[in-house]
Design goal:
- The protein is α/β, with parallel strands linked by helices.
- The protein is 45% helix and 19% strand.
- Strands 1, 2, 3, 4, 5, 6, 7, 8, 9 and 10 form a ten-stranded mixed sheet that branches.
- The protein is elongated, with a radius of gyration of 23 Å.
């Protein structure tokens, strides 16, 4: 009788567990059943915002629900990223994030409380090179002249970026390390004041995201010395990659954009989002819009977890070499 009593209790417990999990399983199976929010950690108009909006449209077409953008600027994208890391892992709050807030910020500032493990990576969307530029008053026209001039005048020249610990800053430090150059880094509060000082010849050199620098390069207001990814960008085949110079052969850094969700995302939800993203990356309209802005659309075959691990290791090495801390 005692054994029978235990069996009944076990059966009752199992039944209650099934009933408790039933709504969760049903929710996952019916996902998505309401609008999805994609957080972008920057104000409207930038490269991350553009990428997020293009992706939101294509995901909405495939998932059959509205996908809306919520811009939450501040702290180099970290405030928006923190909101997603803290959100319920139900697939209704996502992040289109860039390398800064996903991988770099945590390495350079103790203020950032989230870690990359606090996200589920859905997939890589696109990447874009950075570009090293010179002011028209710098007296240099190409990378060789830049290297020669800076090498002969250690500590005399400066380069600017959009802030401490950004991918632009890390690219500048990577170029310095590879070229054995001594330059001063000047962090600006965004791209606009950096642009003003370069065009006003108050600063000799700077690093831009390609899409931000391209209008000024085309207008002749700044001089492109080279892009920072391993190969030339398809958007600017006339601008050499810095790595084409033997001295800088290991320079390979850019800005990338990924679709992320909170950690512990249920697999059925992950699978639906992954499938929708992979299909979106093949959409002609998405490819046209992102490629026209200087981005290279990612292949669905990229293993996002391995990619992120390699990027974090690369950034960590640069941060430690340059002793970058905020």
């Amino acid at each position: 009788m005692h054994t029978l009593h235990l069996s009944r209790r076990a059966a009752l417990a199992c039944g209650l567990a099934v009933l408790a999990s039933g709504p969760v399983v049903a929710q996952e199976a019916s996902y998505p059943s309401k609008p999805i929010t994609i957080v972008v950690g920057y104000p409207p108009g930038g490269s991350t915002d553009l990428t997020g909006r293009v992706v939101a449209t294509e995901l909405g077409n495939r998932l059959g629900v509205p996908v809306v953008i919520e811009n939450i600027g501040g702290a180099g994208g970290a405030i928006g990223a923190q909101k997603v890391a803290s959100a319920a892992p139900d697939g209704y709050t996502l992040l289109v994030g860039a390398s800064n807030e996903i991988a770099i910020n945590k390495l350079v500032t103790k203020k950032v409380k989230y870690d990359i493990k606090d996200f589920t990576a859905i997939g890589l969307i696109a990447s874009q090179p950075l570009v090293l530029v010179a002011s028209t008053g710098s007296g240099v026209k190409n990378l060789a002249e830049f290297t020669q001039k800076v090498s002969k005048n250690p500590g005399k020249f400066s380069y600017g970026s959009s802030g401490v610990g950004t991918s632009l800053h890390l690219a500048g430090e990577m170029i310095k390390e590879q070229g054995k150059l001594f330059m001063t880094h000047i962090p600006y509060r965004g791209v606009a004041p950096l642009t003003n000082d370069l065009m006003g010849n108050n600063l000799e050199y700077g690093v831009f995201v390609l899409s931000s620098g391209l209008p000024h390069i085309k207008s002749g207001k700044v001089i492109a010395l080279g892009t920072t990814e391993a190969k030339r960008s398809a958007a600017t085949p006339d601008i050499p990659a810095i790595s084409e110079s033997a001295q800088y052969k290991n320079v390979d850094i850019g800005v990338w954009f990924a679709l992320m969700a909170p950690a512990h995302l249920p697999k059925p939800v992950f699978d639906k989002l992954k499938k929708a993203l992979n299909e979106a990356l093949q959409a002609p309209e998405l490819r046209k819009k992102l490629e026209s802005s200087g981005s290279t659309v990612s292949s669905p075959s990229v293993n996002i977890d391995k990619f992120l691990a390699a990027e974090v290791a690369k950034y960590k090495q640069i941060v430690e070499f340059a002793k970058i801390e905020e």
